[in-house]
Design brief:
The protein is an all-beta fold. The protein is built from 1 helix and 14 strands; from the N terminus they run E-E-E-E-E-E-E-H-E-E-E-E-E-E-E. It has a 9-stranded mixed sheet.
């Protein structure tokens, strides 16, 4: 599908919406202008910010690839795109993506009950009272508390 892009009250480019497997891809393109231009989608009395147009040669472009869940955060039926939200329309801000989970560390158990990490850190089992000055340095690995030492 294609939608007009309106910047400073004038139609000046096109936004396309297409499918790429399980994803929806938005591609916007218009003539280059100075300053940052945030692109808003409008439809059904709603506004949602798609992103910021970036310079590419003599054009401004924006490409967004969205999952089905992310696409649901935008107006279902888009009428046009512009450089500002419509007055009086509901503004829908897409939910930020949750922060990525930290990578699971691979610890290898040693015969004495300690653990060793790929980067050489050593973890020693520890059962410390909360009043211990080292209690704040404990790391829970596999449900058990360890003191971790760097090589």
């Amino acid at each position: 599908m294609e939608y007009p892009i309106v910047i400073e009250g004038r139609a000046c480019g096109r936004l396309t919406e297409s499918r790429d497997g399980l994803y929806t891809v938005f591609r916007a393109e218009c003539p280059r202008r100075d300053g940052l231009i945030r692109l808003w989608l409008h439809g059904g009395g709603q506004n949602a910010c798609l992103g910021v147009l970036s310079p590419c040669g003599e054009r401004l472009v924006l490409t967004r690839r969205l999952s089905r869940l992310a696409r649901a955060e935008f107006p279902a039926r888009i009428e046009y795109a512009s450089d500002r939200p419509e007055a009086g329309a509901e503004v829908r801000e897409p939910r930020p993506a949750p922060p990525p989970e930290p990578p699971k560390e691979a610890w290898r158990a040693l015969p004495d009950g300690s653990l060793i990490a790929a980067d050489g850190r050593i973890a020693l089992p520890a059962a410390l009272p909360p009043s211990s000055p080292l209690a704040g340095h404990l790391l829970t690995i596999g449900g058990r508390d360890y003191l971790v030492f760097r090589p």
